[in-house]
Design a protein that fits this description.
This is Transcriptional regulator. The protein is mainly alpha-helical. The chain has a single domain, classed as Arc Repressor Mutant, subunit A (Orthogonal Bundle), CATH 1.10.10. The chain contains 6 helices and 2 strands, in the order ααααββαα. Strands 1-2 form a two-stranded antiparallel sheet. Strand 1 and strand 2 form a beta hairpin. The relative contact order is 0.17.
Length: about 120
């Protein structure tokens, strides 16, 4: 059983944007192979947004792309599948909270990057 804190950690650490989560959920709801152009139309997003989200989801082990470039939901493990299910349920119940988790996860990364350039007194 996946704990709620594992789901929130998964959401904040796995998705660079709400678009990526929306893409994952679309692929979960509509099984099968989907071309990028089809996903752009289904999400009403830009080609760049969909390609970046696909890249991130592939790297996270949640999506696979075939030799023709068609994507499908294909979690690399049962744990990832369970986390994706948990994220889907949480997003259905508390969409604003999930959006805040995604944005705050990105803000932490930006803050750490900015801190690397901070001048310190020795």
């Amino acid at each position: 059983m996946i704990r709620p804190e594992e789901i929130t950690s998964f959401v904040s650490g796995s998705f660079r944007s709400v678009w990526a989560l929306e893409l994952l959920l679309l692929l979960k709801r509509q099984p099968g192979q989907h071309a990028v152009t089809e996903l752009v139309g289904m999400l009403r997003a830009s080609d760049l947004v969909v390609r970046q989200a696909l890249h991130d989801l592939i790297a996270a082990g949640l999506v696979a792309v075939d030799e023709a470039g068609r994507a499908n939901f294909a979690p690399a493990s049962a744990d990832l599948a369970a986390l994706a299910d948990g994220a889907q349920e949480l997003y259905a119940r508390r969409p604003d909270a999930v959006r805040r988790l995604i944005v705050s996860g990105q803000a932490r990364g930006l803050t750490a990057f900015a801190d690397a350039f901070r001048l310190r007194k020795d």
